[in-house]
Amino acid sequence: MKKLASNLTFQVLTAIALGVLVGSLFPAFGASLKPIGDTFINLIKMLIAPIIFLTVVLGIGGMGDMKKVGRVGGKALLYFEIVTTLALVIGITAANLAKPGVGIDARASVATQSAAQAAEAAKYTSQAASGEGMNWVDFVTHIVPHSVVGAFAEGEVLQVLLFAVLFGVAVGRIPAEYGQPLMKTFDRLSHAMFGVLALVMKLAPIGAFGGMAFTIGKYGLATLLPLGKLMLVVYLTMFLFVFGVLNAIMRYYGLSLWRYLGFIKEEILLVLGTSSSESALPRMIDKLERYGCSRSVAGLVIPTGYSFNLDGTSIYLSIAAIFLAQAFNINLTLSQEITLIGILMLTSKGAAGVTGSGFIVLASTLAATRIIPVEGVALLLGVDRFMSEARAITNVIGNGVATLVVAKSENEFDEAKHQLALAGRDVPPELEAEPASLLPTVEKPVEEQG
């Protein structure tokens, strides 16, 4: 019992259950716990930039091959585009088949919104009207920071990633007598940063409790009932995407989705409690490296995927857009739905891994279509937070699968480390940099089942 109580998975799961209980029984008190969840997420964000920088520099500096870096990045982006486009198509198909918006009088519902709800909806519609959240040119140019210090200070993942790639390439090209001592220093710093992360993760149950208590306390379980069919369609579609599409991809590369999900269960529960995929970003880099991916691949693919590989967000955006069209009794033609997919292929890439970003992108997408009224986003305010958890979990799972795919295709997957991870044994620190042939061997389990 003592061992179970000290298990992080058990602690986070218990904290989530307590958060739901407190939010339901004492909604005002639960809503006031928002700072607890926010503070924990800020602690994680504090570590994201330095961990990404050190991981990518160590990976690329050790790789020393710019062509290989470009090839890894190219494969990752190609995978992102194919899979997220598939997620959009699946989402629109599911919404057309299930018709979650049919029977809802959207215009009457929007007209009866409270002043507070109307004001919150206006915040998103005004951003959409001004073009914020969907300007693709601005999004691309924003990747290049005005200053390196500013990128780290603001926690801009893609900006830090760009600088880390350039820095890693530069380190790999300087003479070994200068580069090796620098790499050793960065390696020690990397171990120290992950040590800090381990300390922060001890607070994960508290953060999950605060985040869940706030969600239930502010929005209440009763808000789920009117739009229950929409939530059911979103959750089921994401479930089918993970255990259908992603499972098929994993099986193709000789990996087990179930074993992978079991390995990252703590990160999944953390995202469930905090409703933010960013809370799991640093841990996912470490977990995927321990699972067998090379440091360079994990360091490149995971951070990039947080902006370009949002499978859950893509599914949510496509279903929500069709739902609103149905709620407003707008019959979209096939060409209009294809246009909608094209717009979402661009706007969905600008959604960050934080709560609320998908809502802004949805409003921007509706504004761009000029078919579905933007004010319809007010209908989703009550349930968006609950669906945010589903899309954040799907995003995290999808990014891990993408990393495994790229690592496998680049022969950057260490089977010996993978077997150690499945056996629940960490690689000894003194052997972390050794070839796979020198790692401790473990008996290979019966062929993995998807």
UniProtKB/TrEMBL annotation:
InterPro entries, alphabetically?
A: Na-dicarboxylate_symporter, Na-dicarboxylate_symporter_CS, Na:dicarbo_symporter_sf
Q: What is its main location?
A: membrane
Domain of life assignment = Bacteria
Membrane topology, as annotated, equals: Multi-pass membrane protein
Which keywords has UniProt assigned to this entry? Cell membrane, Membrane, Symport, Transmembrane, Transmembrane helix, Transport
Region of interest (Disordered), ranges: 424-450
User: Per the UniProt entry, what are the Gene Ontology biological process annotations, in alphabetical order?
Assistant: L-aspartate transmembrane transport
From the Swiss-Prot or TrEMBL record, give the protein name.
Dicarboxylate/amino acid:cation symporter
Q: Which organism is it from?
A: Hymenobacter fodinae
